[in-house]
Amino acid sequence: MRRSFRDSDVFARIGGDEFAALLTDTDESAVALVLERFASQIESLNQTEKRGYNIRYSVGSVSHPPGSVVSIDAMKAEADARMYEGKRDATR
Prior knowledge:
Layout: E1 10-15, E2 18-22, H1 28-48, H2 72-90
Antiparallel strand pairs: 1-2
């Protein structure tokens, strides 16, 4: 997963199967490029690895303008809500 992100990005495991990435000094189009690289890496793993399952994931992405004051907890809650929203949309 680390290869999908830039050297300046912070990528960490929150717990269980939850991870977070903090992309600073970027805009939504740059985030989209990182997420495309991530999707490509996962797809490549799914095609080359011989397991009885494919790796699947859900993303909740949030963005705030420079200088805005938003707590980590608030960003995580917003990202979680968007992730679950995406999961609901995918099952319809």
